[in-house]
User: Which sequence fits this backbone?
């Protein structure tokens, strides 16, 4: 909401999406009691300003570009609205804004950062689940390449994101959960 | 594990009619130019007369394809910017190569009007090379590591097969205006269609394998289609075989009727197949 309010985003354009990943089941045991392995966790995901951004490589007009700080942004003077970046991004970060007639995405609240303020999503998070800072300092002591469902493999784009894994984090080939709120996270 | 919740919210459609038109028209033009050039180089003097019509038709349908592609853009006035990133973007390379291919066709038309055989051969070689490069770039646009159903050799086979199949069909129809009945002049077109058909049929198995493998990598159900992807592929293949068979079997007295009917069947099959291709879009991740 903070991001939507700050950037006056229209309905259907979501620069930050909270993905609910759920799974598990109840099982009746021989003694007529039940056991369960139900789980749920949430991922708040926006553009990850990847170190190997596939959108920047794919954009034909160089509207999608990465600045000297690693922030991936869109140059509105060059975006032709082909939506190719939306085809390729595994995080659904670039989104087409019908009102602007071009692609739009999280720009890391560049203006706030330049004024030494926090991005609006980080500032608004009531539980301090979102943190902002230099990638190396955030990554200290934390694994950055552990796969985690439903995130895509990190080797695809080297996302600049560090995740503290939930106790019920699911990973591996076996898919034991589903995205529980696709209507909130799917593309427009 | 999939549930009804997943099924209700498919991935977005990425195709619209403009992209289907652009890809099919451009591939048809590339195939037509290639087959015409082969006929000219190995077919003798009569084939040279057909070159003008073929190049003109190829230029016309390439131009129509480019206009269709422009209509896909949200800001077509900024389209020239799409040439900026040919270093890394396959889409930029495609935007660069297709107009160059069209320009080569324009030169080929000029060469036929000037009656200069040497110039015509040089320009035909250039048109074939540029057309092949444009087809290669078009394939690269869809070989995306985040879209597993497309990132398969079947995509290259499908596009090449379409080029030869439709290009051969167009060449056969054009050539029939110059011949009295079935003649050796139609052989390059027939060969192109048969080769295109073989390639399309060879693409079926890798396409189905890629589609099955892709389903296990996606968190969202792929968009629904009136027919399942497998049945659509089967229908497309039946139409391809029927169209080619009809064209090859067209007798002297009903040659043009048979060829036109076969062309319509082939185009129908290819449009169905391309719709299926785009409906297979499904992206890894969120």
Assistant:
């Amino acid at each position: 909401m903070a991001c939507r309010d700050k950037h006056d985003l229209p309905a259907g354009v979501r620069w930050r999406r909270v993905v609910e990943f759920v799974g598990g089941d109840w099982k009746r045991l021989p003694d007529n009691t039940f056991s369960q392995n139900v789980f749920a966790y949430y991922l708040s995901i926006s553009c990850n300003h990847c170190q190997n951004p596939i959108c920047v490589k794919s954009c034909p007009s160089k509207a999608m570009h990465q600045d000297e700080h690693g922030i991936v942004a869109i140059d509105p003077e060059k975006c032709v609205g082909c939506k190719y970046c939306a085809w390729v991004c595994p995080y659904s970060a670039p989104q087409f804004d019908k009102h602007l007639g071009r692609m739009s995405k999280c720009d890391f609240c560049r203006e706030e950062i330049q004024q030494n303020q926090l991005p609006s999503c980080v500032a608004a998070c009531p539980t301090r689940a979102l943190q902002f800072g230099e990638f190396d300092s955030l990554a200290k002591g934390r694994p950055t390449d552990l796969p985690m469902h439903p995130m895509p493999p990190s080797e695809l784009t080297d996302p600049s994101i560090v995740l503290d894994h939930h106790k019920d984090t699911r990973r591996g080939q076996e898919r034991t959960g589903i995205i529980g709120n696709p209507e909130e996270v799917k593309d427009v | 594990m999939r549930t009804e919740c997943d099924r209700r919210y498919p991935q977005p459609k990425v195709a619209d009619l403009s992209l289907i038109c652009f890809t099919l028209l451009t591939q048809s033009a590339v195939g037509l130019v290639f087959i015409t050039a082969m006929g000219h180089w190995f077919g003798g003097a009569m084939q040279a007369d057909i070159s003008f019509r073929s190049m003109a038709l190829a230029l016309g349908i390439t131009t129509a394809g480019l206009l269709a592609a422009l209509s896909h853009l949200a800001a077509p006035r900024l389209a020239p910017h799409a040439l900026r990133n040919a270093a890394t973007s396959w889409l930029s390379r495609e935007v660069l190569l297709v107009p160059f291919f069209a320009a080569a066709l324009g030169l080929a038309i000029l060469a036929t009007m000037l009656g200069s055989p040497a110039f015509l051969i040089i320009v035909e070689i250039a048109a074939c090379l540029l057309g092949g490069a444009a087809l290669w770039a078009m394939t690269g646009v869809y070989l995306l590591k985040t879209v597993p159903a497309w990132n398969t050799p079947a995509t290259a086979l499908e596009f090449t097969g379409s080029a030869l199949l439709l290009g051969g069909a167009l060449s056969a129809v054009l050539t029939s205006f110059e011949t009295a009945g079935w003649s050796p002049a139609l052989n390059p077109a027939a060969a192109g269609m048969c080769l295109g058909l073989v390639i399309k049929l060879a693409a079926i198995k890798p396409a189905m394998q890629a589609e099955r493998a892709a389903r296990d990598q996606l968190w969202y159900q792929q968009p629904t289609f009136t027919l399942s992807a497998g049945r659509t592929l089967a229908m497309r293949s039946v139409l391809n075989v029927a169209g080619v068979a009809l064209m090859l079997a067209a007798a002297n007295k009903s040659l043009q009727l048979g060829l036109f009917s076969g062309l319509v069947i082939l185009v129908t099959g290819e449009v169905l197949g391309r719709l299926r291709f785009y409906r297979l879009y499904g992206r890894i991740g969120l």
Notes: Chain B touches chain A through 41 residues (CB under 8 Å). Residues 1-10 of chain B have pLDDT under 50 and may be disordered. The two ends of chain B are 16 Å apart (CA to CA). Residues 101 and 129 of chain B are 8 Å apart (CA to CA).
